């Protein structure tokens, strides 16, 4: 696998002695699994083996779903949603659900439980009336309101459609090994289950059954993905900052924060990476935004947003920096044709490719933003395949964990999120929850 590279413009990547000591301490927290807040949540550090028992089981379940269903409905929110969808959108056809079955590679995949919109769920169920459906409901706690409500509605719909016995064969629950409502419901309903490891927080769980099962159903080579993640684990297990670009990234963003750069914008030039940016925002926002600290994680899609937010980036307050995900081999290309008479004055580009034009847009924006005093980090990704995407998931998980420790917060808890969840329970009148 060719390596991911990190480059910086207008950022001094030299690091002083004091930061090296802090990196060593954060590294020890992560690798010695002790002494730190959140030390019980380091299960993601060792991704599952690509040819281990879990991978085999997931592939077996994926084959069952692919053989039986027209549609996989994935129900979940936050860390129990974003990573799997990000992987699918990055690695499959941009209009996958619209493809004819023989070209699609697996069932159509839809997501619900990420909102409380009646029109969304009603609209979705209405297009599934005459389709064969299998459900993967995902919740670590088993009590998250959006997921639980969507699942209850879908369960009733499935019972009407298939009856209780067949419904049980069509539900797969991904949840805690022993605790929570979803575990209890699964046992009572005799559903097939996959465990979410207790020592993996939701937003670090993409490389567990949470993300891997939906991705395997979409035909993604999850064994390659795990290989990529394990390569990343090996590559980023050194504390030597000169060798570890994952740590360089974490340190650079903390250095920028100390210089008043309060916002980090993740930039990509491929629409298929939009959900990856959502996953990244959740990872960093939920891990670092606490105790009055943290960088605000934002994202843009270029070139689309060069025509909107690009103005703010270029000339708004200078409190932001960009991290660009640049894919070097875009795996498909389109050549611009010559047009007689040149009515649109584009013949100067005839014979050039869209990737070439996209790259010039990248260079142009990079230069303009650098001149506009926006520091830039560029992560050069050789190509978007399962192995590199696995590597990328791991890269950001580890960078986020290290970065959180450098910031002095616990990167594995989410007291603010829990507060909203509790308030919602109270306001809805859940028994045992008082205002
Ligand atoms: O990262 C987290 O812990 C959260 O974003 C959770 O993933 C999210 O709230 C969903 O929780 P659960 O899986 O318990 O339904």
SSE arrangement:
Elements: E1 5-9, H1 17-32, H2 53-68, E2 71-75, H3 82-91, H4 101-104, E3 108-112, H5 118-126, E4 133-139, H6 145-169, E5 171-176, H7 181-189, E6 192-196, H8 209-217, H9 222-235, H10 245-258, E7 263-268, H11 274-288, E8 296-301, H12 309-315, E9 320-329, H13 354-371, E10 376-383, H14 386-407, H15 415-428
Parallel strand pairs: 2-3, 2-4, 4-5, 5-6, 7-8, 7-9, 9-10
Antiparallel strand pairs: 1-10
Helix pairs in contact: 1-14, 2-8, 3-8, 3-11, 9-14, 10-14, 11-14
The structure holds 5-phosphoarabinonic acid (PA5).
5-phosphoarabinonic acid binds at residues 77-80, 139-141, 144, 147, 201-203, 286, 414, 417.
Description:
- This protein is α/β, with parallel strands linked by helices and 435 residues long.
- It folds into two domains: 218 residues, Rossmann fold (3-Layer(aba) Sandwich), CATH 3.40.50.10490; 178 residues, Rossmann fold (3-Layer(aba) Sandwich).
- 46% of the residues lie in helices and 14% in strands.
- It has a five-stranded mixed sheet, with helices on both faces.
- Helix 11 links the parallel strand 7 and strand 8.
- The relative contact order is 0.16.
- The mean pLDDT is 94.
- The protein binds 5-phosphoarabinonic acid.
- 5-phosphoarabinonic acid binds next to loops.
């Amino acid at each position: 696998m060719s390596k991911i590279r990190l480059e910086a413009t207008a950022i001094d990547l030299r690091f002083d002695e004091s930061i090296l000591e802090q990196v060593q301490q954060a590294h020890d927290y992560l690798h010695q699994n002790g002494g730190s807040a959140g030390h019980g949540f380091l299960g993601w550090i060792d991704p599952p083996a690509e040819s281990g028992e879990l991978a085999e089981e997931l592939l077996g379940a994926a084959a069952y779903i692919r053989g039986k269903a027209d549609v996989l409905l994935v129900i979940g929110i936050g860390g129990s949603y974003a990573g799997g969808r990000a992987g699918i959108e990055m690695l499959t056809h941009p209009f996958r659900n619209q493809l004819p079955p023989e070209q699609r590679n697996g069932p159509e995949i839809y997501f619900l439980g990420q909102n409380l919109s009646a029109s969304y769920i009603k609209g979705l169920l209405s297009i599934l009336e005459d389709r064969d459906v299998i459900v993967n409901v995902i919740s670590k706690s088993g009590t998250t309101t959006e997921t639980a409500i969507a699942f209850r509605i879908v369960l009733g719909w499935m019972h009407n459609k298939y009856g209780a016995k067949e419904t049980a064969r069509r539900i797969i629950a991904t949840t805690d090994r022993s605790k929570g409502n979803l575990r209890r419901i699964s046992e009572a309903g005799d559903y097939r289950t996959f465990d979410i490891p207790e020592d993996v927080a939701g937003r670090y769980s993409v490389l567990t059954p949470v993300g891997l099962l939906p991705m395997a159903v979409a035909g993604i080579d999850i064994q390659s993905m795990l290989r990529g993640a394990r390569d990343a684990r090996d590559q980023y297990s050194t504390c030597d900052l000169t060798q570890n670009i994952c740590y360089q990234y974490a340190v650079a963003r903390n250095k920028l924060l100390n210089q008043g750069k309060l916002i980090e914008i993740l930039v990509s030039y491929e629409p298929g990476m939009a959900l990856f940016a959502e996953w990244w925002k959740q990872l960093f926002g939920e891990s670092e935004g606490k105790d009055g600290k943290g960088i605000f994680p934002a994202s843009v899609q270029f070139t689309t947003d060069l025509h909107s937010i690009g103005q703010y980036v270029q000339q708004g307050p200078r409190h932001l920096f960009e991290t660009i995900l640049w894919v070097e081999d875009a795996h498909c290309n389109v050549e611009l044709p010559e047009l007689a008479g040149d009515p649109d004055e584009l013949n100067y580009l005839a014979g050039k490719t869209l990737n070439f034009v996209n790259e010039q847009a990248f260079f142009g924006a990079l230069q303009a933003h650098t001149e506009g005093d926006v520091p830039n980090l560029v992560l050069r990704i050789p190509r978007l395949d399962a192995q590199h995407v696995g590597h990328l998931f791991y890269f950001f998980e580890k960078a986020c964990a290290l970065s959180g420790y450098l910031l002095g917060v616990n990167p594995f808890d989410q007291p603010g999120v829990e507060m909203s969840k509790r308030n919602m329970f109270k306001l809805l009148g859940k028994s045992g929850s008082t205002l």
